[in-house]
Amino acid sequence: MPRVARHALAITTAITLLVTAVGCTGEESDSGGRQVPGVTDSEIVVGTHMPLTGPASAGYSKIAPATKAYFDYVNANGGVHGRKITYKVMDDGYNPANTQQVVRQLVLQDKVFAVVNGLGTPTHSGVLDFLKSNRVPDLFVASGSRNWDQPDKYPGTFGFNTDYTVEGKILASHVKSTLPGQKVCFLGQDDDFGRDSLVGVEKVLGAGAVVAKQTYVTSNPNVAPQIGAFKAAGCQVVILATVPGFSALSIGTAARLKFRPQWLVSNVGADQPTLAKQLGAAAPLLEGMVGANYLPMQDDAENPWIQLFTKVNKAHNAEAPFDGNSVYGMAVGYLFVQALLAAGKDLTRESLLAAVAKGGFQGPGLAPLRFSATDHSGYGGARLSRVSGGKQSYFGPAYETDEGDGPVKEYTVAPVTPPANGVPTVS
Residue 338: which H helix or E strand, with range? Predict the structure, then answer.
């Protein structure tokens, strides 16, 4: 940005803050008498950026409505310390330039208290410094990039997803133990999503074990060159670090090229209902696909969290089609309500961040949440699933590991059950 433009923006921002400071806003004040953006005695306003349209909208456009549905459920049950949650959802089309625009609107115009579950590695990376400079809590980013786990550089940012290196290690461990000697190839998004995932795969299999590596960009829906290269290399196993649309494109393109490897897919792009909708009549191509996840499976009717989220979906989300994205969105909502409760009735941005850094949260996850003062990553493991007979089901135990050279080991702690009324309480 040219110096003049930066200077103009600084002046505009200063004027905005001045007008806000002298105006009658009705916002809550912290212990020092400063107004808390987005917080009144009856409301907490938070926001997010989501790909409601564009190349990542398949499946992902369901996340924010599911989160909002859970917030509405909590609001109907008295809110959080008497306050109702308002969730402002902005469409960025999975375009980083749009993300910067809509996040600025949320912060400077809408005066949100926090940004919750902003989605995307390339999109959210571009707003980290802006959110930091405006002291906006940046919670539970919808991405497994290791960028979110930098507590010294970005003390207000916390992740949610299992990070891509951890996930890559878990997927690769499955290949190593059950598919030894087979030729492995890798397709990843051309950003930290793909790069971090590949790091995890190669930590387990070794750098020389991946015989072909390809990338894609979301602006180009043609993956025939990449899939053709895998076929030419004789790949028997293909690991995908792809968003749902590109998981479906890869699997469909491979079938057209008469190439049928064993697919292992990142949680980001492995939701079977989403992929089946994308593939249509070609949905049987998903048979045998192995995926990773850290939340209950959407069709596990015996799971108490699925029972709760299904009830919320019916009452507050117009009974929208229920899939893994719905589960994800509501799990984020539940965690944020836990954090608000832990932050206390005298809510400030500082008290919220302190509550998250303290950790100790439990919810529907199959792996541990790793929040602490020195660890801002989210879930620390995953469980593997397989599509069989058109149904996606878990197999084997859940696993946990780190981003380094630590082993992939079983995680044996059983998930907790939700409170009777589905709303968390202060522990």
Answer: helix 324-343
Q: Are strands 43-50 and 84-91 parallel, antiparallel or unpaired?
A: parallel
Task: Answer for the pair 272, 392: CB distance below 8 angstroms, yes or no.
Answer: yes
- Number of neighbours of residue 84 by Cβ within 10 angstroms: 17
Q: Which residues, at least 6 apart from 344, have a Cβ–Cβ distance to it below 8 Å?
A: 81, 351, 355
Helix 304-316 and helix 63-76: axis angle, to 10°?
90
**Residues 341 and 352 sit within 8 Å (Cβ to Cβ):** no
- What are 214-228's pLDDT values in tens digits? 999 999 999 999 999
Amino acid at 49: H
Distance in angstroms (rounded) separating the CA atoms of residues 162 and 251: 24
CA nearest to 92, candidates 139, 127, 138: 127
Give the type of residue at 194.
G
- Structure tokens that stand for 141 in this block: 């980013």
d(CA 212, CA 111): 47
Are 156 and 132 in contact by the 8 Å Cβ rule? The answer is yes
> For the sheet containing 184-189, what is the strand order?
210-216, 184-189, 237-241, 262-265, 290-293, 381-388, 391-400, 409-411
> What is the set of domains in the chain, with CATH numbers?
26-162+300-379 (3.40.50.2300), 164-276 (3.40.50.2300)
Specify whether the CB–CB gap between 289 and 279 falls below 8 A.
Answer: no
Q: How many CB atoms lie under 10 A from the CB of residue 326? A: 28
Confirm if 76 and 64 have CB atoms less than 8 A apart. Answer: no
- The 8-class DSSP code of residue 381 comes to E
- Give 188's strand partners: 215, 241
| pTM beyond 0.85 | yes
SS3 category, 256: helix
Question: Residue type for 163, please?
Answer: D
Residue 118 has pLDDT above 60, yes or no: yes
* Token pair listed for 391: 């149904």
Q: Find, among 388, 168, 182, the residue nearest to 292 by Cα.
A: 168
Q: What is the pLDDT of residues 391-419, one digit of tens each?
A: 999 999 999 999 999 999 999 998 899 99
Q: For residues 63 and 325, is the Cβ–Cβ distance under 8 A? A: yes
Quote the CA–CA distance of 135 and 115 in Å, as a whole number.
Answer: 11
157: which strand partners? 138
Confidence of residue 207 (pLDDT cuts 50, 70, 90): confident
